[in-house]
């Protein structure tokens, strides 16, 4: 099939790699002539864009081989996508009635809901002073040595109770939603001692339960070494005390919500870099996590290369993130692995770095590349994925189509949700972002302006302007 061409078979069927079917979730009976009743019809659409993946993240040239359909439509029922394709054909394939909501997107671009695979949005305090220091030429390391950085956020966060952390997190999530984000990963990491880190995790669970967005928790007590604590002793505290308590908390949360414990188990993350945690520390923490049934992801090669990416591939980590200093050998390892490379161009931009992650080389070698904000209080106070989209095109030299793939289907696979979200495809969850522009290229082109007009989550409008 020609790149981007409309495929009629694809419009009404689901790939066999996922057990969901096009009509699941609908409580309405299919009409006698075989047409499907729907709750929501988005039609006509100026341009519909979506990447496509059957059984994992998209790689290589396929990252740019997205579907682009002019004068398109999406039919939704029961929170799931029922049909996608040309507006005239979808109109004759579905049944609408007085209860069907119809959205006219004839002047709009429509994409899958955006997925933010790396955030640090649970914290208290303000580090605006560090922005000024950075504008005067201070580096990340110099700011940290002067008492700033992660440790400064630790002091404020340790004094915050769960209610405050939830309140602050809620406002930040709302801001992300307004920029088209429909699913995100959220880390702990500013408590740096057991009780504070577990309060942060509790806040994430609270937000996960109440939010309309899909939230995936990550426990990252190994974000920095707390002042006055020996690194080896702190690692032992994480391994012997915190991780077992994390599993207990996840189990209790699952019982409260009546879901399988796997739905509540957080990922475990480590900042493996100079001045933070060694490769040996990271291996020790990950070994303990895996033994407890926890999955891993890693902050790797941001400032120096300690071998964390090799370890991530060896242990089957879900993702290796940052990767500014990844080696050619590690790129080759990533290309042969299931580990997703989560690149964070907002961070290198915010830190005024001249070098960025080698996205072009990774894509050409077949690495599964995702993009995320790295939203945090100090090194990247950017919460907008459309802005990151623009930075990826300018600084990482990614094509707009590749960036879309990285921000949707590949981001979804990076946080374990790729079988259900990240694509506009029958049987997938109806997460849709509608933009106040007409074509794909206009999103990164309009860097600095939020082009998002409307967001639909599980078939329901959750943001509109």
Helix content range of the residues, please? 25-40%
pLDDT averaged over residues: 92
Q: Major sheet, described briefly?
A: 8 strands, parallel
Shape: globular
**Beta strands, count:** 17
Give, in spatial order, the strands making up the sheet with the most strands: 7-8-9-10-11-12-13-14
How is the CATH topology of the largest domain named? Answer: TIM Barrel
CATH secondary-structure class of the largest domain: Alpha Beta
Strand content: 15-25%
Low-confidence stretches: 1-10, 13-27
CA-based gyration radius: 22 Å
CATH superfamily of the largest domain: Metal-dependent hydrolases
Overall structural domain count: 2
Account of the protein in words:
- There is one protein chain.
- The protein has 465 residues and is an alpha/beta fold.
- It folds into two domains: 8-112 and 424-464, Urease, subunit C, domain 1, CATH 2.30.40; 115-414, Metal-dependent hydrolases (TIM Barrel).
- 36% of the residues lie in helices and 22% in strands.
- The protein is built from 17 helices and 17 strands.
- The chain has helices at 8-12, 87-93, 128-135, 140-145, 150-158, 162-178, 194-210, 231-257, 279-291, 308-315, 328-335, 345-350, 359-365, 385-395, 400-407, 409-414, 442-445, and strands at residues 36-37, 40-50, 67-77, 80-86, 94-95, 101-112, 114-116, 181-187, 214-222, 267-272, 296-300, 319-322, 340-343, 369-371, 432-435, 452-457, 460-464.
- The strands form three sheets. It has an eight-stranded parallel beta sheet. It has a seven-stranded mixed beta sheet with strand order 4-3-2-6-15-16-17. The protein has a two-stranded parallel sheet with strand order 1-5.
- Helix 10 links the parallel strand 11 (296-300) and strand 12.
- Helix 6 packs across helix 7 (194-210) and helix 8 (231-257) packs parallel to helix 9 (279-291).
- The chain starts with 7 loop residues before the first helix and ends with a strand.
């Amino acid at each position: 099939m020609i790149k981007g061409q409309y495929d009629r078979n694809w419009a009404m069927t689901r790939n066999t790699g996922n057990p969901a079917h096009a009509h699941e979730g609908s409580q309405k009976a299919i009409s006698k002539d075989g047409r499907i009743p729907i709750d929501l019809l988005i039609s006509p659409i100026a341009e519909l864009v979506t990447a496509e993946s059957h059984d994992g993240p998209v790689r290589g040239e396929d990252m740019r081989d997205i579907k682009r359909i002019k004068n398109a439509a999406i039919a939704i029922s029961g929170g799931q996508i029922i049909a996608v394709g040309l507006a005239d054909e979808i109109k004759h394939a579905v049944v609408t009635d007085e209860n069907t909501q119809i959205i006219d997107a004839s002047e709009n671009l429509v994409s899958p809901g955006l997925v933010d695979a790396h955030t640090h949005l649970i914290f208290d305090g303000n580090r605006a002073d560090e922005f000024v220091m950075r504008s005067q030429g201070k580096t990340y390391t110099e700011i940290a040595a002067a008492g700033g950085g992660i440790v400064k956020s630790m002091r404020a966060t340790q004094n915050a109770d769960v209610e405050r952390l939830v309140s602050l997190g809620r406002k930040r999530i709302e801001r992300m939603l307004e920029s088209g984000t429909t699913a995100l990963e959220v880390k702990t990491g500013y408590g740096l001692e057991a009780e504070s880190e577990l309060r942060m995790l509790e806040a994430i669970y609270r937000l996960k339960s109440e939010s309309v967005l899909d939230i995936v928790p990550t426990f990252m007590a190994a974000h920095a070494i707390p002042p006055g604590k020996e690194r080896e002793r702190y690692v032992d505290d994480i391994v012997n005390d915190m991780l077992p308590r994390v599993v207990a908390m996840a189990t209790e949360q699952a019982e409260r919500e009546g879901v399988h414990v796997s739905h509540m188990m957080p990922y475990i993350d480590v900042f493996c870099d100079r001045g933070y945690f060694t490769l040996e520390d990271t291996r020790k923490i990950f070994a303990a996590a895996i033994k407890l049934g926890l999955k891993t992801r890693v902050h790797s090669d941001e400032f120096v290369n300690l071998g964390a990416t090799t370890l991530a591939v060896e242990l089957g980590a879900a993702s290796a993130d940052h990767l500014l200093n990844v080696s050619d050998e590690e790129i080759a390892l990533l290309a042969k692995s299931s580990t997703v490379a989560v690149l964070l161009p907002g961070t290198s931009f915010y830190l005024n770095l001249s070098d960025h992650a080698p996205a072009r080389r990774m894509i050409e070698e077949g690495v599964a590349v995702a993009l995320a904000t790295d939203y945090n209080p100090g090194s990247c106070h950017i919460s907008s994925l459309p802005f990151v989209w623009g930075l990826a095109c300018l600084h990482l030299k990614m094509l707009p189509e590749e960036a879309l793939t990285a921000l949707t289907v590949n981001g979804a696979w990076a946080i374990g949700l790729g079988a259900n979200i990240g694509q506009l495809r029958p049987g997938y969850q109806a997460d849709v972002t509608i933009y106040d522009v007409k074509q794909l290229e206009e999103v990164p082109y309009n860097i600095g302006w939020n082009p998002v007009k409307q967001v639909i989550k599980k078939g329901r409008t959750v943001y509109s302007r």
